[in-house]
Amino acid sequence: MSLFVEDEDSYVDRNSPSPPAELPPVEISVEKTQAYYAQQAQGNDGNIPVVRSNEAETIPVYESKEICCTLPLRFYQEITETMLTHDGLLVLGRGLGCDMVTVNLLYALSSPSVSLQHGNITQKKRSLVILLNARDDEIVKMKEALLELQWMNSSHFGETDESLEDDWDSPLRVVSSADLNNTTKRRLAYEKGGALSISSRILVVDLLTGIISPQDITGIIVTHCERVKETSNESFIVNLYKDGNDWGFVKAISDEPEAFTGFTPLATKLKVLRLSNVFLWPRFHVEVSQLLLKGSGKKTNMVTEITVRLSSKMTKIQSAILSCLQACLLELRRHNPSLETEYWDMENIHDKDFVLRVRLSLESQWHRISWTSKQLVHDIGTLKDLLSALLTEDSLLFYQRVQGIVDANIKSSANGVATSTMSPWLMMDEATTIIAFAKERALGKVSVKKSSEQRNELFTDADEQSELVYNLEELPKWEQLAMVIDDIMHERSVEAVKSEGPILLMCALEKTARQLSAVLADSRKKENVSGKCIYTSRRFMVKQLRKYLEWKSITTLTRELTLQFANDAAENESEELTEKLNTSKTFTRGKDGPQSKRRRTRGAAAVASVSRLYSGSSYEKNATAQDLEDDIVLTVENRLKNDLKAESGDENELDENQNDDVMIFDVKKKSDDYPIEHIDKFNQIIIETYDDHTNEFLLQELSPAYIIMYEPDLSFIRRVEIYQAINPTSPAKAFFMYYGTSVEEQSHLLRIKNEKQSFTRLIKEKAGLGKLFSSEHESWKFHLKKSHVVNTRIAGGADFRTETDEMQVVVDSREFNSSLPKLLYRVGIKVVPCMLTVGDYILSPKICVERKAIPDLISSFKSGRLYQQCEQMFRYYELPTLLIEFDESKSFSFEPFAELRPPGLKANITSSRLSKQEIQLKITELLVSFPKLKVLWSYSPYETAQIFLELKANQHEPNVNDALEKGVNPSIATSDGPPMFNDDAIDVLQTIPGITNLNYIHIVKNVLSLSEFVNLSREQLKDMIGEENANKAYHFINRRVR
């Protein structure tokens, strides 16, 4: 069947006076087709009108200039050229040089000026490029790289030394959050042009207030665009910029492909950023892979993999922890069958964000899930930390961690009611395996032969030729690391052409870096029984043994107090308010069945099993930290002294250096705290930690000759590959260490797999990506529009308004941390930011709204600030309103927020109930104090925007000047509005006797801080607040406690 309308398929348009025109039955050609459409455009009846805009477009023309860039590889140059000529979203693989591309792109685009051609008119203006969403540490590195580019271009194009001295400032200037009140400084920064890094909150305020016009911005570069959401300030800025500038560019860059999740993530991100192009550059891209594998055949470019075997005890502990993890995960899935996802699988347990993702999937129903489920989520996080500590911490420190977990699972008391907080996984046999082998690794007793001197002088019996010492097992990687460094030193001593670069040792955590520094300082080479040379760190472990003694004394006292409090609370235990763990046979395999089969005691055997662990002799045997025997400790230290004496001839070396700490440079300390000593680059061993934000230029700055990766890291491996490709003549020799058949290896392989799968999904989506045509105000989440609420009738004295009439809301500048201002803009309301003293949102001359999210509401009730804010609203406005806004990802109730507590504090059902009742009681007290206070309840910011739209339908527009003047003392007002005070400090100030709501402003005018206030004399206080109030305040501050 043909898709065209034929004679037998008659088509009659009843609303048209004549039948639709048909294409003439002639041969189709380009000239005739163009003539036909030109004829149709003249306006025949019955045709669809074609609207053509004759307005000339604005075309930016940049100055043609030649610049030097730091783009040593070909694919870098291709990426930069593509981003220079097209607006779009760039997604790079991890470690492929995202910061390097951003720096060169920023330098190339920040030209001195840009010419705008609008028809026959050409306008020249200063260029201004905005950098958004960059972290502070990244900004520091970018400023250094841009300054280097500036010097490079200055020297290459023959500029004089005088001009070079004027360019010591980096091309990238920064406007920090501290400049929020300094509009003059920000305006000068905008007028100067160039590259500018600025906070999103400040820029959106400046765009709305007119301090900077979108036409004055040449373009915007958004880094870490994976964090940009529909309601974020970055998206707000892009919308404001695109609405007011039709010629500027927007470029977005990301190096985290795994963060692009959800349904059609590329299309969603492009819509949020208002972009149409996307560029994907994974590690397996043809250009990248060919370039990085070009020299793989050379031995100098190959990475030496060092697979280290776990000890037998570490292997058993690892298997036991994995079994506990699997049991917890199965139990969590059994308790939440309707909430589980495919991600809840042991295959993904090695993902570093596994616990966070599980927690987010339960977030919306967190207040409804059982107490056991919450405990299981916490236990999975604990076990994952334990699994990571097994491979990074020494045996004594790991045993302390295990013992701390056991001690923390004693019956505790909260709010006077005893609550069972025992973790279910401790009921398993594998938990006993973990505890037993952790103790055996650290403090297991082994028999060793005595030294030759002791055998000859003290004993003659063959049975007394041995002595007991503690095991003090060392990590297997320590010996391999010492051997690698020894081989490097030997290779350097015999090679003809010595490389001058240092040895770079990379690890994951700062505590691991400190540990390796101490281990390398204490490592010794010795021969074992078979005559083979080995490296031992026994001296480091003996030092750790002394720290264990200090920890043991503290934990013993803590355990005794905890047991005492638990026993006291058990006497008053109330069964009504205690929620027991509801466990299944997953944690009680091979144990006795429940003694009672009644439903209300389900799981009693499981709880009783844990109770037996902590009762009587069983608790003393399994749960307490092992006491050290003085004679064995003395034997361990004497043997170490004898070894040191045999090596150096000084038996006091251990005692002299027992408290020495390895010097680690800390930027927070003064340089005077460290001894200044020159070390040749040839002899340096530099220990650094993995950091995706600061490691970009690390290899280029240090130029190491040897790189040792103590732990696997995908991003840094890519950076090493790039460094090798950049330096083919003198590449660094790399060593890659990992534990074979361990969770460390599995985590690394999983990360590679996840990145590959993420890029595969993005590539498939890009292949079917269509062109987006939509209005900037279009959103399915807004079911209410301006046309639905405006009053178009003139009756009863009402004002006539249409949907084209402008609506505006005066918004406090501090409210731009929330998403509501962005949503007000999208719903069609003009947002006017000001520094308000009374209220957060001024909807009309009568309506003032104080917005409170639930955490902010709770803190305001505790500090009493909400009562003062309501008093001020009632003083200046007819309809003061309190808006209580909930989180759209949580339930529309107080239950999810009732468990807000300090980190590390376990919640219980009793405290949650009391907190929920307390919140409701506080709201009731507030309404009793202010009966005319209007309260709005909103389940999300989207609903709040539509509530504001309805409230403004029949109201006059607010006056900005009136809103600024209300609540401000004229004597302290500034040209930029009311000053921005530290509310927390003012709250503390008003608690002092003699300081009232009326006279505190006199102190604020004359005193900058609380420390300055407490040092005021009596006479100075009298001049500010009067004699009587000054005496009260002075006596309160200077009265002795004892």
TrEMBL record:
GO molecular function, one term: single-stranded DNA endodeoxyribonuclease activity
Region described as Disordered: spans on this chain: 1-23, 572-603
Biased composition (Acidic residues): 1-10
Boundaries of every ERCC4 domain copy: 808-888
InterPro entries according to UniProt: ERCC4_domain (IPR006166), Restrct_endonuc-II-like (IPR011335), RuvA_2-like (IPR010994), XPF_nuclease (IPR047520)
Coiled-coil residues: none
Family, similarity comment: Belongs to the XPF family.
Protein name according to UniProt: ERCC4 domain-containing protein
Lineage: Eukaryota, Fungi, Dikarya, Ascomycota, Saccharomycotina
